Amino acid sequence: MDHLQMPSPPSVRRCGVGIDTSRYGHYAAFLRDDLQPAADELQFAESAEGYSQFRQRLDRIVEHDGPVHFVVRLDAAGQYADNLLSFLHALNQTAATVRAPAFAVTVSCGDPNRNKNYRAALFGPQKSDPVEARAAARFALSEQPTADRLLSLELRVLREVASRLQAVVRQRTRLINQLHHLMALTFPELALVIHDLAAGWVLELLHRYPTAPRLAQATDDDLAAIPHLPAKHRTKLLDQARGSVGSIAGATAEELVREQVRQIRDVGARQNRLENLLVSAWRDLPTPNHLDTIPGIGAVTAAILTAFILDIDRFKAPGQLVAYFGVMPVEVASGVDREGRPRSPRRYVMSRRGNDLVRRYLWMAALSAIRCNPPVRALYARVVAKHPQHKAVAVGHAMRKLLHLVFAICKTGRPFEAAHSTQDEPTIAGDATAPEVRAAGPKPVEPARTEVTATRPDSVTDSSASSEGLAVDFIHVKRQLPIARVLDHLGLSASLKGIGDQRRCPCPIHRGDARSRTFSVNLDANAYQCFYAQCGSKGDVIDLWAGVRGMSLRAAAIDLVHTFGLEPSPPRRTEKRNG
């Protein structure tokens, strides 16, 4: 998103312009290279007249000082700077074509927290529009920030639609929560039968029979007339209604429930309209990004991802994109569970970081991708095999895999290639209805060589001639080999210091001296990390062996198989066929 700011020619003076933005107007400060005022400070309105005053102030500086390169730094508050950014970029384009080299403008906006910290370092606790503007002007001159590129009109429109959709989705969630609270008073047993109160047939049921006494008067035939109401729920609903412990009933309570249902239906219709508008805005982008070619990601999810990613060049690696949306586990070690038992010290839940709208739609996309996206399905199967009681963990991994695919598609500008789905995939435990699909990997040719491919660090492929025909499953290799055994083989067991599972010793990769114990290893988790800045190595037994031996990951895995007598991959299962 950013590009290096070009230095001004020696004959052109630099002028730092700091602008503190707000909803109805802005405050600008102007500083020369020596940090002295270049002109009087200006407070101007968010209007054509106010922008004209700002333009005149810039012209006055040029008339007084000659050719000037204005380095503008905005302290942006929310979206209040959008019009000003467009005006400044248009001003720069005009200057470049008409008035150059006497007039040039470079604009940067930056992180509001960084602007705040810089202002606090210069002016202490002082906080006002003039102080904010002066700090921004000094920042522009002293720190020489990179120039921001203005988003295209189509992308800005897409972002605005996405923000409206986000507000509507949040409103719908609040209304559904209010309906849950209302049902807890009028018909608490409903939650024992139905978990999704926002389902269409549930809303229709509550509209016709809003309280337990009203539903108790209905018959099985009455419930059969409600579209899509499952037959298995009819008897349960009637029995629960006739014995309900709900404490609120009557005409007022009934109308209150019906009003809540009407609001949920209305906001649901608004959500559908905004989704359609969002997809339309996404398809109007000058260059398609092909995100909807990834199986599991539909047009709505692709549009939402595009609206909040904005520019993939902001992210140097897929891990940064994953962290940006918070699709990663975090450890929770405090509190008690619902049964009152202390929670395990090693319990992981999905992080709450990131954009809630993206996470909501990405979760649904992951559920779809588990069925129809071979690479995601293969990863899901492996995680479910490891955590059969916590399939939500596997869905989180599927979300992360989708973001890796999104990163690759955006960086390359090429559609997803479904042809690379040819290898046999493990069956998901407990999923008897899952269709047979193929895992991601190169398309085999005759003579075929067996490969197991997946997302690193689980397995990778290598075409080296020394092991061309060998299939290596990284997970299978790591399961057979504790890291303590590898450390003992490397002669490091005696130098390990500490008690328990966490130990330290000199790093065997960058070969630190005996006094530096920067190498930390967790014998229970089979993981290590070196905290020496110039090394920074971390990973599992395969990463450790690769670092010590100077090998690629595949070569290291194969060497471990030969050195410790391991199985390179699990034996293939054969199934008896009846008949």
Overview of this structure, please?
The strands form 4 sheets. Strands 3-2-1-4-5 form a 5-stranded mixed sheet. It has 20 helices and 13 strands. The protein folds into 4 domains: 13-150, Nucleotidyltransferase, domain 5 (2-Layer Sandwich); 163-283, Helix Hairpins, CATH 1.10.287.4070; 291-335 and 343-440, no CATH class; 465-564, Alpha-Beta Complex (DNA Primase, Chain A), CATH 3.90.580.10. By secondary structure, it is of the alpha+beta class.
Number of helices: 20
Shape type: flat
Give the low-confidence spans.
1-9, 421-466, 574-579
For the largest beta-sheet, the strand count, sense and barrel status come to:
5 strands, mixed
Q: How far apart are the first and last residues' alpha carbons, in Å?
A: 62 Å
Notable features of this structure?
579 residues, alpha+beta, Helix Hairpins, four-stranded antiparallel beta sheet, 13 strands, disordered C terminus
Concise overview:
The protein has helices at 48-65, 82-99, 112-123, 129-142, 153-186, 190-193, 200-208, 212-216, 220-224, 234-242, 251-283, 299-309, 318-324, 356-372, 374-386, 391-412, 474-480, 483-489, 541-549, 553-564, and strands spanning 13-21, 25-32, 42-45, 68-75, 103-108, 329-332, 347-350, 421-424, 438-440, 502-505, 519-522, 527-530, 538-539. The protein is an alpha+beta fold and 579 residues long.
